[in-house]
Amino acid sequence: MSVDRTACPGQPVVPPGAGALAPAGALAPSRALRFWLDPANLAARLEQAGPVVPTRTGPTTAFQVNDPALLRKVGSDEDTFRFWGPDPSLRDFNGHGVVGLEGAAHRERRAVMRPAFTASRLTALGPSVQARTRQLLAELPADRPLDMRVEMSRLACGLLVSCVLNSELAPGTLSKIASARSTLSGGIFWRYALAPWPWVPVPRRRASRRALAELDEAVRQVRAHHRPAPDRQDLVSVLEAAAPGNPHVVQRDVRALLIAGMETSASTLAWACYELGRHPHYQQALRDEADAAPDTDRLQAHQLPLATAFVQEVTRLHGIPFLVRRTRHETRQGGVHIPAGAVVTLPLGALRRDRNRYRHPDVFDPQRWLPHADPPPAPAALLAYGLGPRYCPGAAAADAMLPVALATLAGSRTLRPARPGRKIGVSLELTPTPKGLTMYATPCAPRN
User: Fold this and answer.
1) Phi, then psi, of 207 in degrees rounded to 5
2) CA 154 from centre of chain
3) Left, alpha or beta for 23 (phi > 0: left; psi -120 to 50: alpha)?
4) Is the peptide bond before 51 cis (omega within 30 degrees of 0)?
5) Strand pairing class (343-346; 60-65)
6) What percent of the chain has pLDDT over 70?
7) What is the 3-state secondary structure (H, E, C) of 7-32?
8) Per-residue pLDDT tens for 373-415?
């Protein structure tokens, strides 16, 4: 990973060094997967492609939606397109929890969770996220390289359990879940990707079963150590109240929320560490911003425009590259006939690198998201949490937590690559994360 002192406040924005990010070896066997997972490649072809383009993938054909308006329509149409979560191939993972529900059942379960994400509760998240992040970072060793994919999974899971689920995990369980997250995520990806061809063996099936057992133990601990809020409107409490006498329903929902809630946050934080290593001046800039807050021990996301912008730019360049739907019945979209049961891909990563939408789209530049940027920022165009009826119910909580966690990380530790110049791979998971990213996390000197 090359380290560039560029794209920082007060400095000119220039592209990162050539070869800073390389595709993982796992992508090599599949030309179709390389096409889907390379947003820059997709973005370069969007203008030349039609609104819907058939793409050969193995023995079948997938259909890629290129038109932004049509993409939103397809992504929101539950009557015609099936979301990936309820797919029968994923029953072992989603356990019929909220992620695996459809239609009215899914909407009802989302409505149950709504009181746990009110504005007042989101405001209260900042200080608790800051305090818990400091605790988790204090446990990091400073004398050896750290696998940031695992450590940021540990941080994301710890924040989710403590600040959103009002519970705790034993330190050993938290470490096991952090190590198992990549296996779980990769298992879900491959189980779904290979569902049309059941004769093809799913990679790492045994490891996925072990990871699921670790997840179930974590869910058991979350339930056992849950601390209900005084008004009992926290997330676990409202789930329990909606299913009295039926602990299995709550168990399944907490299980699904742990997978989904940890996944995107862990990926975002890991890629944020990657970009901090490439652009080290931002580490000091994030510290300075946090130090300028009215109360440095009670940070809030709205007080951290640079940290918020940094997270948004990480999402733009490294967020989920595509969403997947399957047709329930044959349909015609963008003038193209799509048969029943076909895979339809929505290339979000390509849209985030659209040159008509972003200036210098391949450059990491958080300043494009600052409040007074020109052209003005358009966070809705990121589609960071999906779209339509499957929009992530915890999106507002993630927006409140991640900038505070990032600012606390930058203020507590100085990150530097363990192997400067090393090319970093991309893991093949639900949310791609940097593979092989090892860094030193040295405690920062005390502030005067």
Assistant:
1) -65, -35
2) 14
3) beta
4) no
5) parallel
6) 88
7) CCCCCCCCCCCCCCECCCHHHCCCHH
8) 888 888 878 888 888 888 888 899 999 999 999 999 999 999 9
